Amino acid sequence: MNTFKLSASALALTVAASSAFAEIDEAWWKSAAEPYQGVTIRGVTESSPPSLYIREVLAPEFEELTGIRVDIETTSWDQMFDKAIKDMEAGTGIYDMAYIEQDIIYSYLARDFLTDLTQLLADNPDLKAATYDESNFTTFADYFKDSEGHLYGVPMEAFLKVYLYRTDLFEDPEIREAFKEKTGRDLEPATNHADYAEIAQFFTAYGEENDMDLWGTTAQAHTGHVASWYEYWESVAPTFGVYNWGINADENYGSSVANGGEMNGPEAVEAMQWWLSMRDIAPPESPASTWTEVGTTFGAGRVAQGLVYGENAGWIAADESKSLVVGKVGVALPPLAEGVLEEVEAGEGYIGYYDGGAFGLPHSSKNKEATALFLQYIGQNEVQPDWAVAAPRVTNTATYDDPKVVEFNKELGGYYDLIKDKGYLFAGAPAYPFHAQVREATAPIFYQILTGNLGVQEGLDQMAATAEATLTELGYRE
Amino acid sequence: MQSKRLGWILLAPTLVILFFFGVLPFFYVVFVSFHSWNPFAVNPEMVFNGADNFRQIVFDPAFLHSIGVTVMFVFFAVVSELILGYILAQAFMRDFPGKAIFRTIHTLPLIMAPIIVGSVWKLMTTPSIGIIPHYLDEWFGITMNIGTSAPAAFATIVLMDVWHWTPLVTLTLIAALVSLPPDPFEQAQIDGAGKRQIFWHITLPMIAPAVVATVFIRLMDALRTVDEVWMLTGGGPGSATRFVGVHIFKEVFPKTNYGYGSTISVIVLYLTIVSCWLLYVTMLAPRTKRD
């Protein structure tokens, strides 16, 4: 099934989306947009499937409906931040919408870059669409709210970083038998690190013995790109019980164990050692792999299991034009250390990364009202199902129950069920306004650990010390 | 008098553009370099801190390391390009079948944007899928992984730069060689000079200005290399290819350390000017004096 018509034909999606279009109160939109005829609103976002859907489908639809022109600029991840931050910092007003990744929202709020959308609509009731309601969003929208519950960004994508495994390999009778013979247990998706490692070792050896391009696990372990830093701190360390990058916000942002943090604690060390041991039996491209290459590696059928971002899980599981493992993918929760699940269920942490983003309205925008209309347009329940099928992401609760989405969920191996039922176990990046600054300060040391130039304990000690020094320099740590 | 005024009028647009997009930003960067400024700090304002940033730079191992690898990169890349460029220029001075086609193909890398070059080389060098590691393994049994091997990553970047920029050196040297008068060469041959003697005592001194100009251009370009490296290794593995341009980028953009990043930029600009001056003094100034 070729679900991802986006790259092949935006036209087909436009037609597919027309049923939702019909349910929208056209007269209201036309009248609300009347004062803004001739206005062009501009947005900058990452070149990802959900953003491309906005550019190719939702923006033209909105333009046709309202007469307000929407230009969406899709660019690389770092360029997007660079452009948006410079624009908002200088107040030039080039962009009326900026993609806010979940991890940057706290920095933007601290700098007061964004317009309070809740307040804007409350102050301008004429702009409020009947079909738009903040309560329609999933709890992921909470990341884009302030302490008073006011929304600063309309969620447009939300994913989990999930444990993906090859059902065809896990269900193959010969492989199952070989695995049982070797390990004495049945081959099932792992629930703890030891089991995961055993499966990884088995498949790497299996690939070698059978002269196949097959390895036991993915590893997003680039030695010069922050993707590896993210995989460790957001997806691996939490499964060992190290949350919020090991920084303790309640203890004066202590990072080292000596100062109340966990960045260099025994759990962090164990997590790093385990992850590095998995990296060593992953495909050879792993030390040069970011999130994109990990998806490509899985989609090429080169691994039996791995931690993969949900935005890639969609095409891996269902897009025949890109993936060799369509219909052969299952999803599960990541393997966890003992006691972590109980801790998380009790609300004391999380087991993995809840990734995503929203479109925010910068204070510097010169077309706030017209932009508010567009943001409401993309936040309606009515436009969500086709979007969820075209670029797997769910931001509105009602989307889960739409027949198209229910059907698509089967192809995704139950990925949407996992988000719906277990999404609460995952979390976005910690609420740090210094996110990029601490990441960049510690990343060079992290890469030295990956290359083996620094030992794990020594490297994590240095990272903790550097994080504390950076936080002191920035004024967050006293 | 009138032609003088006309000259200024014609120059005016360029000077205005240069002032706003070159001179003004330069002075702004110098101004910022004397401040501590991170918009995501608790105090997001610019705070004057005197020469603190400059003092910090002297003891910053990351910066010093980036300078070290950059100097190595510049040396290997520029020297290789000069030698290879000269050999190719000499080859193009002769006639051989398919010369026009080969010369066209040879200049194609020049029209490619650095970011594209980085992407192409990333595809060619990624383990498992890249053509280079594949054939190195198949033909010579060599395992190449630029994600883990610092020497491999460094050598690949030098090779990529040589591939990208040697055509520029070739074209410049062809222009210089074509313009040389034939008399001194004929004279030298009559006097029985060998090829090596002709090269060292006639060709090289006569094309020296072109060589120095090419080295200036390549030196300045190589010192600010970012795009290709960013695409290929991101500065890794570890910090093996974190050239000074990449270091500045990471300091200024993701880390938003505008004050310190500006200081590094000013220092690097100063080092570039000094390098070019040294080059001029050692290679061209004695010649000018002789003339």
UniProtKB/TrEMBL annotation, chain A:
Task: State the GO CC annotations.
Answer: periplasmic space
Q: Which Pfam families match?
A: SBP_bac_1
SUPFAM superfamilies xrefs:
Periplasmic binding protein-like II
Q: Where are the transmembrane segments?
A: none
Record InterPro entries: Bact_solute-bd_prot1, SBP
Q: Name its cellular compartments.
A: Periplasm
Keywords of this entry: Cell membrane, Lipoprotein, Membrane, Palmitate, Signal
Does the UniProt entry include the keyword Lipoprotein? yes
Task: Write down the superkingdom of origin.
Answer: Bacteria
Its signal peptide is 1-22
Q: Does the entry feature the keyword Cell cycle, yes or no?
A: no
Indicate the family of this protein.
Answer: Belongs to the bacterial solute-binding protein 1 family.
**PANTHER family on file:** ARABINOSE-BINDING PROTEIN-RELATED (PTHR43649), POLYGALACTURONAN_RHAMNOGALACTURONAN-BINDING PROTEIN YTCQ (PTHR43649:SF33)
Protein known as: Carbohydrate ABC transporter substrate-binding protein, CUT1 family
UniProtKB/TrEMBL annotation, chain B:
What name does UniProt use for this protein?
Carbohydrate ABC transporter membrane protein 1, CUT1 family
Give the matching SUPFAM superfamilies: MetI-like
Source organism per UniProt: Poseidonocella pacifica
Please report which protein family the annotation says this sequence is part of.
Answer: Belongs to the binding-protein-dependent transport system permease family.
Q: Which residues form the ABC transmembrane type-1 domain?
A: 63-279
Q: Which UniProt keywords apply?
A: Cell membrane, Membrane, Transmembrane, Transmembrane helix, Transport
Q: Which PROSITE patterns match?
A: ABC_TM1 (PS50928)
Q: Where does this one sit in the cell?
A: Cell membrane
Chief place of localization: membrane
Q: Name one GO biological process term.
A: transmembrane transport
Q: Which domain of life is it from?
A: Bacteria
Q: How does it sit in the membrane?
A: Multi-pass membrane protein
Keyword Zinc listed? The answer is no
Claim: Transcription regulation is one of the keywords in the record: no
**What start-end ranges are recorded for coiled-coil regions in this protein?**
none
Q: Name one GO cellular component term.
A: plasma membrane
Q: Where are the transmembrane segments?
A: 7-31, 62-89, 110-132, 152-178, 198-220, 258-280
